Amino acid sequence: MDFRGKRILCLGDVMLDRFQYGRIDRISPEAPVPVVRMTDRQAMLGGAGNVARNIVSLGGEAVLVGLVGDDAAGREVAALIAASPGLDDANLRSATRPTVAKTRIIAGHQHVVRLDEEVTEAVSEADAAAAQARVSARLPGCHALVISDYAKGLLSAEVVGHAIAEARRLGLPVLVDPKREDFAFYRGATVLTPNLRELRAAAGAQRPALPAETDAELAAAARALMAGAEAGAILVTRSEKGMLLVEADGGVHAVPAHAREVFDVSGAGDTVIAVVALAVAAGHALPRAMRIANAAAGVVVGKLGTATLDIAELAAAVEADAGEDAVIAGKVASSPGQALSVVEGWRRRGLEVGFTNGCFDILHRGHVTMLQAARAKCDRLVVALNTDESVARLKGPARPVNALEDRQAVIAALQSVDLVLAFAEDTPLDLITRLGPDVLFKGADYTEETVVGAEVVRARGGRVALIDLVPGRSTTSIIARSRVMAG
Description:
five-stranded parallel beta sheet; elongated
């Protein structure tokens, strides 16, 4: 995980989070309330500002576009941004609107009370127009857009619609932390990241209301909400139950929570969307990005305050939480659309993408050698497998020996392979056309003229590479020998 150079524009409600720490020794004689003896105080960026803090703490860069007042809290926000390397202050200053500030009184590890200073009415038309102009000016050069909605008045339909349209025009992923029950307000987003309560509220607001209790009901509700919002995926954070990812053109993925000990959940959602944005910008598929974010959330909820984590903490958490099965699953794309998102992320980083395909029914030395040689000639290697039905049409009704799910898992376990997906057609021509690889690999038993997709790749400026085969190694010969040995 290397997020250096990944620049994320964070648009949304910026807040000042103040924490005052103390201890309780007695009850007040003036009223039946505890007396907190203050021992320490701390201030940090909150709301969209906390998303930006998480991005820079992990080695990325963040452009923060929000609105703060011309007041002491606003000046404190500016000072905190100035003290954060990699964080670009693009906030608007308002002479008529105060900075949103939240003060939490904490005794021991317990929140005693929270004091909110805020105005939540919609910002003026002038401020909304200024926000749109700021997004247009600062979004080029970024790798993703995060919209962090805390319903404090900045994110009007015009501001949100303009930001999403600009990001889509630039080919950037859009990640939204929603606060409204109508997810269509964020129409066109790539990923929505509601928590469980927010998803259920949105499902209940549908007519008729959608049930959202079981995992199956949550997935069905997410698909319905995605359709209305024309979104690509919904990632639901479910506290102690972990996360659930539902993709519009793919599958459903779930991971359990990994928090060792929970002290404070403040800002955990900000950490999740920040990590997912960085991971997607760095070329990770959404299921993998979810697993990385889940590990990050497990770290920050074990800290007091609106916490962040650094890249070393994240790497350690991912290593501890992700067993071999999770790593393998993170390499398997559930759809061509998801694979294209990963490939486009690699391409934005200047990486050369290779592609090969086959049945890969019984993995043998010839397969492994060929894939290793291909990976040595490119930066990332995509392997496309024929579905079971496609294999049967090509090889006969007795094939495949191993079902698609098993074949994908075995190929994904190889270090030389970076992404695995399936295609149902007899040839991968449509898939090659859609993904547009830079290098097309095939065994040396082919000629360049007979390699499917060769003309498509060369027309884009790519090349075809033929890989020498290991003599005498094939699935067909293995099956034949097995039958002879079986008598």
